[in-house]
Amino acid sequence: MNTTAIAKRRLTKELKLIEEELPESCKLKLVDNNLFHWKGYIVGPKNTPYENGKFKLEINFSKNYPMKPPSIKFNAKIFHPNIAESGLICLDILKNAWSPALQIHKILHSLLSLFDDPNPSSSLNGVAGRLYKKNREEYNNTVREYVNNMMLKFNED
């Protein structure tokens, strides 16, 4: 079986699994019925400055999935130490700690955890990382401001 067929089989299985196991705070769907391109959003976790924010994301899978991790990026400006202005995400399981045993619903849980527990020592957004370390209250206020602005744009879409 070639790598594309393996990827399609795995993605079909994962698509069914996310319908059953995806947390209510996440929503994913195929783009143009393409198994290799998904869009959706995750809702910021309760008791965090990201609470109630709907963060759009895009997931692209290579033909070598699950041997290679998916490419995941946010399509909204998020003030977070581990998320670049461009939406790129610094999360070890999407890079050097990737394992073919990982599945999309587990990756989404990791993304939700990242909102709850940022890692400022591994910052893609240096401003957010420094502020998180030095002034948590100002960091939280900045996050809330970003979330409020982002929600206005989300509701316009």
Can you describe what's shown?
By secondary structure, the protein is of the alpha+beta class. The protein has one domain: Ubiquitin Conjugating Enzyme, CATH 3.10.110. The protein is built from four helices and four strands, in the order αββββααα. The chain has a four-stranded antiparallel beta sheet with strand order 1-2-3-4, sandwiched between helices. Helix 3 crosses helix 4. It is globular, with a radius of gyration of 16 Å.
Helix and strand topology:
Blueprint: H1 3-21, E1 26-31, E2 34-43, E3 54-60, E4 71-74, H2 104-116, H3 126-134, H4 136-156
Antiparallel strand pairs: 1-2, 2-3, 3-4
Number of domains: 1
* Content-based structural category: alpha+beta
- As laid out across the biggest beta sheet, the strand order is 1-2-3-4
DSSP helix count? Answer: 4
Largest sheet: 4 strands, antiparallel
Stretches where pLDDT is under 50 for at least 5 consecutive residues are none
CATH class equals Alpha Beta
What is the alpha-carbon Rg in Å? Answer: 16 Å
SSE topology string: HEEEEHHH
CATH level-4 homologous superfamily: Ubiquitin Conjugating Enzyme
Number of strands: 4
Tell me, briefly, the overall form: globular
Distinctive features:
157 residues; alpha+beta; Ubiquitin Conjugating Enzyme; four-stranded antiparallel beta sheet; 4 helices; 39% helix; globular
Short structural summary:
This protein has 157 residues and is α+β, with helices and mostly antiparallel strands. It has helices spanning 3-21, 104-116, 126-134, 136-156; strands at residues 26-31, 34-43, 54-60, 71-74.
